[in-house]
Write a structure and sequence with these properties.
Number of helices: 19
Organism: Candidatus Cryptobacteroides intestinigallinarum
Protein name: NAD(P)-dependent oxidoreductase
Shape: globular
Family: Belongs to the NAD(P)-dependent epimerase/dehydratase family.
Radius of gyration: 23 Å
GO molecular function, one term: L-threonine 3-dehydrogenase activity
Pfam family, one: Epimerase
Structural class: alpha/beta
Number of domains: 2
Number of strands: 16
């Protein structure tokens, strides 16, 4: 049997390394090519594979086309996991935009440069950040819901732009897998100011690092059906990994002996909006295709993560809560990213993350920001009316390839714009059409990107969509409450 060659970017990152490890277990069927920067850390990590016949290491950079091309040549699959992510993305927003967009452009250029590019399958790892702020009562969502970045989230902007580059590139087989928050042992060490950008009453449907690795390996298997490709999916480890952020912080702090988040944080430190995260009404679709979940109970998973912590973390249980709060406080007051600096230094951010100075100052107790009860079981949530399904502006029970010009015009009008054709391309996979947004921008996009992915005009200012979108765009207005449309 001829081995398939898989080119993996971002192999030395958290998700990429998990994917590499799973692929390496299947090296009887796969040959692995990885692109890695030539750093001391990466050399140390990859040294065991320097002479491995099943692993080819390309020392290079995603920003250098020739390096990316070297990885793509001869590959059957391209798993594009690499790029800049939080917390670096939060400190270097413009660099993040450049790296993530240029990397996608180089992937596309390299794939299409192959004489047999139609056989190459490209897997793009997107992000839940692409779907912006989804606070209760619109905390359930699915692929096809509006794509829009939260304000000041350049990482989300970069992922939206990079995704469209892949999807509308002309590559014959692509898929966008939108990653959620990843649970991995190192998460206990990720203490930085961005933790307070996350509303304590927000939600997230997490994915474990192990499930994420299996996902990357399984997507390369022959048994993945043709119908899987050219679509968008949400990654998660399932129902039991649905948490509100209060629950998450509680589980995160418990292994180090902190029994209550309220003892070590001030309620005002946490933003009340403008982040991202939702629970998925389509969570199981990807699992049905790729069978990647371990289905380990979440409390057991957190115990397993905690067992990997260095011994000195256990000493925190002997430290008074007041001292721990003093240790946490500087992060809330770090210049630029610290939420508590915005009251003086950045009123625009204060408005985006708290609503207004008045709303910020009104936060005086945990009772004001604790999340309400939210049903996690999808069937029960459906029955109780807790799941508000957004209108996508087209009949989602139909194939997009069965729609006609009137259907596409209605979808465009629902988004505040128009469908401009060409009608002769309707029904063709990957066909690019001209659309017009509510502000008169004309742009090209596929029906897959607009209807299946929830994308729209990227010429509109992506840095603060809430101030760009008008009520003409009923599609995106659904997820922007009246406080943003006043």
């Amino acid at each position: 049997m001829t081995k398939k060659t898989v080119f993996l970017t971002g192999a030395t990152g958290n998700m990429g390394w998990a994917g590499f490890s799973e692929l390496y277990k299947k090296r009887d069927r796969f040959r692995i090519k990885i692109l890695a920067r030539h750093s001391k850390k990466n050399i140390r990590l990859l040294r065991p594979f320097f002479s491995d016949p099943d692993v080819e290491i390309i020392w290079g950079d995603l920003l250098v086309y020739e390096d990316v091309l070297a990885g793509v040549i001869g590959s059957d699959y391209v798993l594009h996991v690499g790029g800049m992510v939080s917390p670096k993305a939060d400190y270097y927003p413009e660099k993040t935009l450049k790296v993530n967009v240029t990397a996608a452009e180089n992937i596309v250029k390299a794939v299409l440069a192959q004489p047999d590019h139609s056989r190459i399958k490209v897997v793009y790892i997107g992000s839940v950040a692409q779907c912006g702020d989804r606070m209760c009562p619109i905390h359930w969502g699915c692929a096809g819901d509006p794509v829009y970045p939260s304000a000041f989230d350049m990482y989300a902007v970069s992922k939206c732009k990079a995704e469209k580059i892949i999807v509308d590139s002309g590559i014959e087989h692509w898929v966008s897998l939108r990653q959620s928050g990843i649970l991995y042992p190192g998460i206990f060490k990720q203490i930085n100011p961005v933790a307070f950008h996350v509303p304590i009453s927000g939600v997230l449907e997490w994915a474990t690092i192990e499930d994420s690795g299996r996902l990357l390996a399984n997507v390369c298997e022959d048994w993945v059906p043709e119908e899987f490709w050219n679509r968008f999916y949400n990654i998660s480890s399932g129902e039991q990994y649905r948490m509100n952020n209060y629950e998450f912080e509680t589980r995160l702090l418990a292994p180090i002996g902190i029994s209550s988040v309220e003892k070590v944080f001030e309620p005002r430190w946490f933003a009340t909006r403008n982040f991202h995260g939702m629970w998925y009404s389509d969570a199981d679709i990807l699992e049905d295709y790729l069978h990647f979940r371990e289905n380990l109970p979440i409390d057991e998973y957190f115990r397993r993560m905690a067992s990997n912590l260095p011994w000195y973390y256990s000493l925190a249980r002997f430290v008074p809560a007041g001292l721990i709060k003093l240790f946490m406080k500087p992060m809330a007051y770090e210049k630029g990213l610290g939420t508590q600096t915005w009251i003086k230094d950045d009123p625009e951010k204060l408005e985006a993350y708290y609503g207004s100075e008045e709303e910020y100052r009104a936060i005086g107790s945990w009772e004001q920001i604790r999340p309400p009860y939210m049903e996690k079981n999808q069937a029960k949530a459906e029955a109780s009316g807790e799941i508000l399904h957004l209108n996508h502006g087209w009949d989602t029970s139909r194939s997009i390839y069965s729609l006609d010009a009137a259907d596409l015009e209605w979808a465009a009008e629902f988004r505040g714009g128009h469908f401009l054709g060409p009608e002769s391309e309707i029904g063709k996979k990957g066909a690019l059409f001209t659309w017009e947004c509510e502000h008169g921008h004309r742009f090209k996009a596929s029906a897959e990107y607009v209807l299946l992915g929830g994308g729209w005009c990227l010429d509109c200012d992506q840095r603060n969509i809430r101030k760009t979108v008008t009520e003409k765009n009923r599609f995106i207005s659904q997820v922007l409450s009246s406080r943003y449309l006043e």
